[in-house]
Design goal:
Layout (H helix, E strand, L loop, with lengths): L6 H14 L7 H8 L3 H13 L3 E3 L5 E3 L2 H5 L3 H20 L2 E8 L2 E8 L15 E3 L4 H11 L8 E4 L6 E7 L8 E8 L5 H18 L1
Antiparallel strand pairs: 1-2, 3-4, 3-8, 4-5, 6-7, 7-8
């Protein structure tokens, strides 16, 4: 630290870097130990960063990077969407269902990229910007399952009728993308999801994760 720098800002930036380097978030105690400061200082830093949506805390108290980080750079969000589109297009065309990339935004799931199939007679209308609770719908449930490490092989979540009557969904979480928590999935008008779709969604999530690294 020099006379021209801010200790508080420096600590806040270090908090963001520490959180960006973990997929599971950090507790106040863990941050306190890593920063070498007391818990009160960490609480104040997190509260300030939360006000700007740069940090969010889950129900268990673990702090994670917030989507406000994406909003700092106007081109970051489009770049995330652009990176995911090839895998989403392939998924939508292969399955014949609407494919989407969903990210966590606070306590909600936010669809940031959506691709509809070109060859089907009908499909579910699903738009970028659509929000829903994390505990409803395949996209959000896949993210929650990844947090709790309860996803069984091959690593996807299935739902039916939770967001739209008559629609089924399949989603798989993004794994290994530092600072990004989300899922890739499809939604279709059917009573159930065909068996092959689950693994196809897992493969697409892996492709998107690779593109975002």
């Amino acid at each position: 630290m020099t006379a021209e720098t801010s200790q508080t800002l420096d600590r806040g930036l270090r908090v963001l870097k520490l959180l960006a380097d973990t997929d599971h978030g950090l507790t106040v105690t863990e941050l306190s130990n890593k920063l070498g400061v007391n818990r009160t200082v960490v609480y104040r830093l997190l509260a300030t960063l939360e006000q700007h949506a740069l940090v969010r805390r889950d129900l268990g108290g673990r702090a994670r990077v917030g989507l406000g980080v994406l909003r700092l750079g106007r081109q970051v969000h489009p770049l995330v969407r652009e990176a995911a589109l090839p895998a989403l297009r392939s998924l939508a065309e292969d399955i014949g269902a609407t494919a989407h990339l969903t990210l966590v935004d606070g306590a909600e799931a936010l669809a940031v990229a959506v691709v509809e199939p070109t060859w089907t007679d009908y499909h579910v209308a699903y738009r970028a910007g659509f929000r829903h609770p994390l505990d409803r719908g395949a996209a959000g449930r896949a993210i929650l399952a990844a947090r709790q490490s309860v996803l069984a092989e091959p690593g996807y979540t299935l739902t039916h009728g939770e967001l739209e009557a008559g629609a089924s969904g399949a989603a798989a979480p993004l794994i290994g993308v530092t600072g990004v928590e989300g899922s890739v999935g499809v939604v279709m008008l059917s009573d159930s999801v065909p068996e092959r779709v689950g693994q196809r969604v897992v493969d697409a999530a892996r492709e998107v994760a690779d593109a975002l690294r």
